[in-house]
Amino acid sequence: MLKELVKRCSPLPSGSRLLILGGGFTGQHVASLARKLGTEVICSRRKASHNANIVFDSKATVLPPNEAFEGITHLLSCIPPTNSGEDPVIKILGNQMIKMPLQWVGYLSTTGVYGNCKGEWVTEADPAKPTQPRSQRRLACEQAWQESGLPVQILRLPGIYGPGRSALETINKGEGKMIEKENQVFSRIHVDDIAGAIMHLINLAENGKKPLIINVADNIPSANTEVLKYAANLLGKQLPPIIKFEIAAKDMSPMALSFWQENRRISNKLLCENLGYQLIHPDYRSGLKDCWLQYKI
Is residue 143 one of the residues assigned to a domain? Predict the structure, then answer.
């Protein structure tokens, strides 16, 4: 919850001005936390909204006004690659970003860039070997950010969930399929911990601690059936019978099937042990309980 996040996080340095490009589910959560901590936040969306200060639509070439970039000290990009693998922020705003007094730039990427690791633990030292086209595009964008000359830090994220976007909604919509695939696990991260980790990393960067790539994931990669069972238990709902993956795969979309074709356990040791970030939701049980408590309000 936002109250708990505010208690745990330190504010950004005095005079900071944060620009968030891509004010969707994650971007809005980061913006809310930063504002509660007293930081001025400029947040973009593709269309005018009460949740956004400015409009930025790279496809329609709708650009923010120049004054939106004045005095920006910290920038977070949540905008995905184009279909061709280009980063729209660098392509369109690259020249303006170079002129900003930026102290920290964050780019939200995906742990999909590691490819299929056959269920093994993966750290930031492991090579990126993306097999899915969407992950290959992400890696291309990571490389573009690294070559930009900006003080960038890349955050690699697994499956993101939080209030209004979790297994609870899946169960309530009757979409919870109990698919069993031997030894298959997925890593996850609650949106609270994305926001909390970002504030933590920005403050560490002020003190010279700034690894280029950070995995932001919880402690316990888990089978999808475990998560759905726990969600159903919280809601007091029954689940359908378990289906073997080989059978379920016949009716899966190419996108859904691609998620099941990769298996990895994402290590957060760099973030949590080396850099000292304390997870608010160390596993899916804690995270789903938080979603459920807000679900009831």
Answer: yes
